[in-house]
Write a structure and sequence with these properties.
362 residues; alpha+beta; Endonuclease III, domain 1; Nucleoside Triphosphate Pyrophosphohydrolase; 2 domains; three-stranded antiparallel beta sheet; 15 helices; 13% strand
């Protein structure tokens, strides 16, 4: 793109932003590096409409870097529960601890930012551009989509060669002034006009420089990721232990793996004999009073599908017959809601509370 066209691109985008940009998003109000950072991490692979309520609740509880750094990972994951991709929450907490201990703030330099867990090149650029108006490009999903249409790139943008090319274009297009507004304008345009399906090309401020629009092939971009094998299907049996104290038994999952750091029901294979399993797992004197199979539910992950078969096991033992630790505990349903729970566990709790024949769980 010629120099005069580069200038026209940014000017057109900024003029559009002045009239139509999303200026009232909560992270646009007082856009400090900390507030922008939290929003950027939450917005990874998650829509704005979903993030807003989580963001407001999170930043109200953890108002600044110091609060977040001094919190426990359980506190962080409790407020992250339901947002998904929990490694983001764990990385956010760890990065806050490192930044607070090392710098006493979110570092204002790219070389320092990119060293923190969970912060890549685009996220670091977004923090510096949106919060400090520094001249760094971003390349999130919205920007990639805009650029692949602008330049009619006939290959998947995940290929290293294409990603390198997109970074080159993003740097060339970056204006020398109003970098924060320009960066937000790109994100807003991708979210509201240059959308994945049915882009609104007739009202796009940069359609005159868009090669895909000129060719009438905007629906062909971005080129989809090459197909791979279908998602594998896995199964698990979630064991909902309930005692006479109207408590349920939860385990704290390892920090690595799915639902890392969250609390959930114990699991075993669907072929397991539950009475023998309980005895092997918990080694307590008890009597299994009833075993009730509950309706299954399906949960989708990025790389596989998980079919969950929940089973309600009513036991006569008191809670002190099963050793508790900081990794295992009996809790009331009400207290369970205060813990960080993965979406399927939360869904099962709600169903148990709503079921008329399971009121003893409340």
């Amino acid at each position: 793109m010629k120099q005069e066209n580069l200038v026209s691109f940014s000017q057109s985008l900024l003029e559009w932003f002045d009239s139509y940009g999303r200026k009232h998003l909560p992270w646009k109000i007082n856009p400090t590096p900390y507030r922008v950072w939290v929003s950027e991490i939450m917005l990874q692979q998650t829509q704005v409409t979903t993030v807003i309520s989580y963001y407001e609740r999170f930043t109200k509880h953890f108002s600044d870097l110091s609060c977040l750094a001094q919190a426990s990972v359980d506190e962080v994951l409790e407020l992250w529960a339901g947002l998904g991709y929990y490694a983001r929450g764990r990385n956010l907490h760890r990065a806050a601890q490192i930044a607070w201990d090392t710098y006493g703030e979110i570092p204002p330099h790219f070389e320092d930012l990119i060293k923190l867990p969970g912060i890549g090149r685009s996220t670091a650029g977004a923090i510096l551009a949106l919060a400090l108006n520094q001249s760094y490009p971003v390349l999130d999903g919205n920007v990639k989509r805009i650029l692949t249409r602008q330049y009619a790139i006939n290959d998947w943008f995940g290929h290293p060669r294409i990603e390198k090319l997109l970074w080159q274009y993003a740097e060339e297009l970056l204006p020398t002034e109003r970098v924060a507004d320009y960066t937000q304008a790109l994100m807003d345009l991708g979210a509201t006009v240059c959308t994945r399906q049915r882009p609104k090309c007739s009202i796009c401020p940069i359609k005159d420089s868009c090669q895909a629009y000129f060719l009438g092939t905007q629906g062909n971009y971005p080129v989809p990721k090459p197909q791979k094998n279908p998602l594998s299907l896995r199964t698990t049996q979630m064991v909902i232990l309930s005692n006479h104290q109207q408590e349920i038994f939860l385990e704290h999952r390892p920090l690595t793996g799915i639902w890392g750091g969250l609390w959930s029901f114990p699991e075993c294979s669907i072929e397991t004999n539950l009475e023998s399993w309980c005895e092997d797992q918990f080694n307590f004197n008890y009597q299994v009073e009833s075993i009730k199979k509950l309706p299954s539910l399906r949960h989708r992950f990025t790389h596989f599908i998980l079919d969950i078969y929940p089973v309600l096991v009513q036991v006569s033992s008191e809670h002190n017959n099963i050793a508790e630790s900081n990794q295992k505990t009996w809790v009331s349903t009400k207290k369970a809601y205060q813990l960080g729970l993965p979406a399927p566990t939360l869904k099962l709790l709600k169903k148990l509370n709503e079921a008329s024949d399971l009121k003893h769980m409340v």
